[in-house]
Amino acid sequence: MLGKPSEECAVKVMDTIPLLMRFIRADMRENSVASLSIPQLRSMLFIKRNPGASLSEVAEHLGVTCATASTTTERLVQRNFIQRNDHPQERRRVVLNLTPEGKQHLEQTLAQTRTHIADLLESLTTEEIAHIEEGLTLLKHAFERSELKKAP
């Protein structure tokens, strides 16, 4: 017996997204001229989207302890990809931002991965690509609404 359309769609989302993420992670790792680890790349992406993020926010995003996130970000600080500063109002809080070199490296890695994804999609028709774009837009909006409901 078939489930509701939303349940069938959820199965497809859960089957497809991990496959897509494995491809993106492997490709970004391969394209990282600096040979960064996936946690390092994920940290940089999070900080790019959340300038001034704290160490605990990075840890939560990665699903690791603050100590592990500290080690990950320290390696990025040593390579001049991340800048770590003390928070102006909270002495014990650290503020993380990408350095110009970090931004450049991350953008170069992302651009190469986007090119590889575009190459994979090249065999699809314009109509098929439009369907994918429409579906992704709908999916993004559904999850953005979910995020808004969680916001304090």
UniProtKB/TrEMBL annotation:
Alphabetical list of Gene3D superfamilies matching this protein: Winged helix-like DNA-binding domain superfamily/Winged helix DNA-binding domain (1.10.10.10)
Residue ranges occupied by any HTH marR-type domain in the UniProt entry: 1-141
Any one Pfam family match given in the protein's UniProt record, by short name: MarR
UniProt xrefs under PROSITE patterns: HTH_MARR_2
Protein name: MarR family transcriptional regulator
Biological source species: Plectonema radiosum NIES-515
Taxonomy of the source species: Bacteria, Bacillati, Cyanobacteriota, Cyanophyceae, Oscillatoriophycideae
